[in-house]
């Protein structure tokens, strides 16, 4: 593959999930996107991603999409480092083009369960936030420095008002003097709340950290003479009935009934938070490549599409938990 014939590389995490496969299908079925961009689609296990394989099947014989499916275990920071090193080496050698879009789409949700990874980090926080934060910083050296874009997948579940999950006073403050209660999973732990709502709160907290990253990273990029043209955007894909809820005690009901409910509500009220994965994928691809008013203008920056002392604290703590050191990232102000 000659990288000079392509406009850039797309890196997508969580590519085998319900939303991820719909995003890939949009890319693979678009002549403009499929023929001009190289796809790197990251999944937990590249040998077991049947939904992604199906999404990559060409809809038309005239459309060809150069791509690869890679294994990326976001539960382990070492896996993140290995993947980033491989991509960076190939971009530097000209084997693949610079990254035009990095999409942080992977998500992990526990309900009545709770697991820990990598030296005692809460799995939800590690997968949803820390590993993807680290991946972003490591890959900055391979981003297209004129048109690069980082798209962050948000969630309405970090809104403390919605759903009543944070109504009790003890759940209303989870970022005070340290990120540790969220990072180590001692806040809203299974021991404190064994119900499915405990896991949902931890998910919301991890997504809040990811949302905080948008403005903080954009500010640091703006101040960097090499990276100031890179943009960071966030989007809330809405409420979708997807496999991420498979650990919910009522998942059988959710899996069968909610797709119909979401489809009907999104049709009756297009601005509703309920959407199908296909509808959300349409919105995500618009944010990935859009250059019109829908994405804040030709060069939107630091925006969050929903259809700071604590921010700096989360960033600082992330540097420590990820063991980021001098030389790991090209970002000038990384500490």
Q: How is this structure best described in words?
A:
This protein is an alpha/beta fold. It has a single domain, classed as NAD(P)-binding Rossmann-like Domain (Rossmann fold). Helices cover 39% and strands 12% of the residues. A seven-stranded parallel β-sheet has the order 3-2-1-4-7-8-9, with helices on both faces. Residues 292-297 have low confidence and may be disordered.
What attributes characterize this protein structure?
single chain; 335 residues; alpha/beta; Rossmann fold; 10 helices; 9 strands
Q: Compute the CA-based radius of gyration.
A: 19 Å
The overall pLDDT, averaged over residues, is 85
Span of the ends, CA to CA = 37 Å
Spans of at least 5 consecutive residues with low confidence:
292-297
Proportion of helical residues: 25-40%
CATH class group:
Alpha Beta
Instruction: Please provide the ordered H/E string of secondary-structure elements.
Output: EHHEHEHEEEHEHHEHHEH
Domains, number: 1
Q: Specify the number of helices.
A: 10
The CATH superfamily is known as NAD(P)-binding Rossmann-like Domain
CATH topology term: Rossmann fold
Task: Tell me the β content.
Answer: 5-15%
How many β-strand runs? 9
| Biggest sheet strand line-up | 3-2-1-4-7-8-9
């Amino acid at each position: 593959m000659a990288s000079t014939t392509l406009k850039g590389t797309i890196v997508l995490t969580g590519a085998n999930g319900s939303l991820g496969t719909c995003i890939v299908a949009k890319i693979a079925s678009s002549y403009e996107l499929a023929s001009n961009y190289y796809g790197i689609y990251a999944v937990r296990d590249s040998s077991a991603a049947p939904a992604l394989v199906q999404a990559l099947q060409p809809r038309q014989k005239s459309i060809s999409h150069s791509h690869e499916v890679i294994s990326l275990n976001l539960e382990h920071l070492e896996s993140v480092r290995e993947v980033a090193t491989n991509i960076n080496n190939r971009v530097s050698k000209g084997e693949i083009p610079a990254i035009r879009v990095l999409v942080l789409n992977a998500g992990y949700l526990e309900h009545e369960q709770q697991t820990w990874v990598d030296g005692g980090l809460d799995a939800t926080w590690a997968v949803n936030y820390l590993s993807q934060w680290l991946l972003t910083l490591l890959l900055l050296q391979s981003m297209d420095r004129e048109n690069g874009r980082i798209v962050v997948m948000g969630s309405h579940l970090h809104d403390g008002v919605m759903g009543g999950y944070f109504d009790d006073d003890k759940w209303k403050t989870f970022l005070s003097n340290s990120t540790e209660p969220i990072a180590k999973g001692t806040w809203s732990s299974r021991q404190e709340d064994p119900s499915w709502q405990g896991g949902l709160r931890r998910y919301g907290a991890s997504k809040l950290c990811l949302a905080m990253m948008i403005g903080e990273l954009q500010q640091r990029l703006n101040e960097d003479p090499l990276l100031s043209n890179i943009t960071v955007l966030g989007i809330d894909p809405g409420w979708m009935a997807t496999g991420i809820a498979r650990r919910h005690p009522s998942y059988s009901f959710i899996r069968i009934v909610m797709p119909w409910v979401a489809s009907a509500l999104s049709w009756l009220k297009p601005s509703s938070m309920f959407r199908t994965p296909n509808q959300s994928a349409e919105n995500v691809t618009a944010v990935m490549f859009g250059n019109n008013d829908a994405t804040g203008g030709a060069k939107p920056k630091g925006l969050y599409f929903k259809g700071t002392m604590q921010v700096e604290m989360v960033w600082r703590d992330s540097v420590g938990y990820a063991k980021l050191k001098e030389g790991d990232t090209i970002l000038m102000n990384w500490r």
